[in-house]
Structure formats: structure tokens, C-alpha cells
């Protein structure tokens, strides 16, 4: 994204909502300073939020757990400790034994989402769960050579995929 006033890369991105109308602001460092916006910090997030730095000293985590790796994106726990940023949704499951205490501390004891969900979120989640079940059933049917059943499940998956937004 480029600055609204010049061709330099924007470092400040802000969305302002007034009376239901969204206005986006994208500014380079020079124009952001001139407009009075604070510049984003260039230090690692673990230095900004000390509770995240506690990830390095997680109690009860063995050396093996600390050297573990997310099977989906390949992020290592050591990399997470440096950046305090997970690579994908699967990282939460892969590193949960090591980061659970940190999440509890940061969220004042909460470990699960308690806020609002996006509109239609429950329906999307149900559809994803149904799709995952159908995929497991399809794999099972193919593994046991039940090809007619597998074809029906495949058709159900195609129908489900066409109804997705």
C-alpha cells in the first residue's frame, strides 16, 4: 500500500468510522509525522509486552516441547519466542502446552473466546465441521474400497462447496 500523498510505502494504516462511513488513511513515515500520527514501533513485540516474553520461561515445558514445530506451517517454538507471532491457526494446537499460561495471563484468566462472533460465524463453523466429517468419511470409504459410498460422499462435498459463500 502506498502513501496517499506520495509514492512511498505507507507505514500508518487507519480506518476511521464516522456515522457508519468508513474512511481509510494510508501514510508514509514523513506524512504520518506531519499529520501527528505515532509511527509504529520497530522493536519486537516480545519487548513491548513483557508478558509475552514469559513464553521463553514457560514452566513445565520440556526441551522437546520447546523445540517443537507446527506441522501445518513449519513455525518452530523458538521462532515464536522471538517474534511472539504464530504462523497459522494450527500453531495454537501445536504450541498450546507451552503458551497456555501466557494466554491466561494476557487474557486475565480466559483461555477461550468470550466476545462477539462475526455475523454468520456459527453457520460457517457448522459447514466447516460437516465438510471435515465428509472428508473423513470419504477417506474411510476409499480405504475400505466402498466406491459407491465414496461417490455419494464426493457428490455431497461438491454440493456443499457450491453452497459456500
Please describe the topology of this protein:
Elements: E1 12-18, E2 21-27, H1 29-35, H2 45-48, H3 50-53, H4 63-66, H5 77-83, H6 90-106, H7 121-143, H8 147-163
Antiparallel strand pairs: 1-2
Tally of separate helices: 8
Low-confidence spans: pLDDT under 50, at least 5 residues?
none
- Side-by-side strand order of the widest sheet: 1-2
Oligomer: single chain
SSE arrangement, N to C:
EEHHHHHHHH
The end-to-end span amounts to 27 Å
Indicate the mean pLDDT: 78
Overall 3D geometry? extended
Q: In total, how many beta strands? A: 2
Strand % is 5-15%
**Biggest sheet record:** 2 strands, antiparallel
Structural class: mainly alpha
Percentage of helical residues? Answer: 40-55%
Number of structurally distinct domains:
3
Radius of gyration from the CA trace? 23 Å
Write a structural description:
This protein has 165 residues and is mainly α. Helices cover 50% and strands 8% of the residues. It is built from eight helices and two strands. The protein has a two-stranded antiparallel ribbon with strand order 1-2. A hairpin with a 2-residue loop joins strand 1 (12-18) and strand 2. Helix 7 runs antiparallel to helix 8 (147-163). It starts with 11 loop residues before the first strand and ends with a helix. The model has no long low-confidence stretch (mean pLDDT 78).
List descriptors:
extended; mainly alpha; about 50% helix; 2 strands; about 160 residues; about 10% strand; two-stranded antiparallel ribbon; 3 domains
In brief, what are we looking at here?
By secondary structure, the protein is mostly helical. Helix content is 50%, strand content 8%.
Amino acid at each position: 500500500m502506498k502513501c496517499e500523498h506520495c509514492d512511498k510505502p505507507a507505514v500508518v494504516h487507519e480506518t476511521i468510522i464516522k456515522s457508519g462511513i468508513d474512511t481509510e488513511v494510508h501514510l508514509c513515515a514523513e506524512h504520518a509525522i506531519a499529520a501527528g500520527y505515532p509511527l509504529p514501533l520497530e522493536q519486537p513485540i516480545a519487548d513491548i509486552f513483557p508478558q509475552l516474553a514469559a513464553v521463553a520461561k514457560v514452566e513445565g515445558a520440556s526441551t522437546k516441547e520447546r523445540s517443537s514445530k507446527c506441522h501445518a506451517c513449519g513455525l518452530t517454538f523458538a521462532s515464536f519466542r522471538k517474534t511472539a507471532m504464530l504462523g497459522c491457526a494450527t500453531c495454537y494446537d501445536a504450541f498450546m502446552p507451552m503458551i497456555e499460561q501466557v494466554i491466561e495471563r494476557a487474557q486475565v484468566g480466559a483461555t477461550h473466546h468470550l466476545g462477539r462472533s462475526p455475523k454468520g460465524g456459527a453457520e460457517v463453523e457448522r459447514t466447516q465441521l460437516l465438510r471435515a466429517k465428509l472428508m473423513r468419511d470419504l477417506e474411510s470409504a476409499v480405504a475400505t474400497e466402498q466406491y459407491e459410498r465414496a461417490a455419494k460422499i464426493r457428490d455431497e462435498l461438491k454440493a456443499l462447496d457450491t453452497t459456500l459463500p
